[in-house]
Amino acid sequence: KVGWYNAVVQPAFHLPYSDDTLAFVVLSTPSMFEKALKPFVNKERLKIIRDPVDQCVSHHLSRLKEKFPDQTVDIMFDYELLPNRKPKFLAQTAAHVAGAAYYYQRKDVKLDPWGKKKIFGVCIHPRYGGWFAIRGLLLFPDIQVPFLEQCAPVDCVSTEEQRIELLEQFNFHWQDTRYRDIIEVKEKYSEEQKAYFATPPAERFKLLGLTQ
């Protein structure tokens, strides 16, 4: 429910819907690259003018919207910004309150070892670890769900030591991707997908055989 999200974020990030409004958080699993992105690039090659992943997600969620012709469906994408350059919604917080993935933050560590350093939090999925992404929100303004019960996300990084290790790796060694394997995962990115996301965005077009 939108109210679950609005209750834990600052007013500047509140979603302009009533508390009981139904919303879905959309995640992409590791197989998205092979099952969605590559077929999309092959089919839409001439129409790709910005980030291919963003365009692919936009394409599929827009098609999903067409499945609900009698409903108003508002879509917010993870890459969209407000005029003040802040994100339209806080994706990791939304995933946490929806029960999709646990958002581990500094406050989840009792004996904080970082002093005055800025420490960013990270979501971990019980099946995919860090090998997934939060892509958007689907909001149904006309559907109110007052009796929907909130499910807590699975706390899969449960020890103090593991949480410190996770935040340490994510904040200071994120490029080696070790934080993604903080737990044993059922599925992870293919080598091709790892190479794609490790490549600077401006050079990714070449990897997909696209001219920018």
From TrEMBL:
GO biological process: cobalamin metabolic process
Assigned EC number: 1.16.1.6, 2.5.1.151
Cofactor: FAD; FMN
GO cellular component, one term: cytoplasm
Reactions that this protein is recorded to catalyse: apo-[alkylcobalamin reductase] + an R-cob(III)alamin + glutathione = cob(I)alamin-[alkylcobalamin reductase] + an S-substituted glutathione + H(+); apo-[alkylcobalamin reductase] + methylcob(III)alamin + glutathione = S-methyl glutathione + cob(I)alamin-[alkylcobalamin reductase] + H(+); 2 cob(II)alamin-[cyanocobalamin reductase] + 2 hydrogen cyanide + NADP(+) = 2 cyanocob(III)alamin + 2 apo-[cyanocobalamin reductase] + NADPH + H(+); apo-[alkylcobalamin reductase] + adenosylcob(III)alamin + glutathione = S-adenosylglutathione + cob(I)alamin-[alkylcobalamin reductase] + H(+)
Gene that encodes the chain: Mmachc
Residue stretches in coiled coil: none
Name used for this protein in its record: Cyanocobalamin reductase / alkylcobalamin dealkylase
Alphabetical UniProt keywords: Cobalamin, Cobalt, Cytoplasm, FAD, Flavoprotein, FMN, NADP, Oxidoreductase
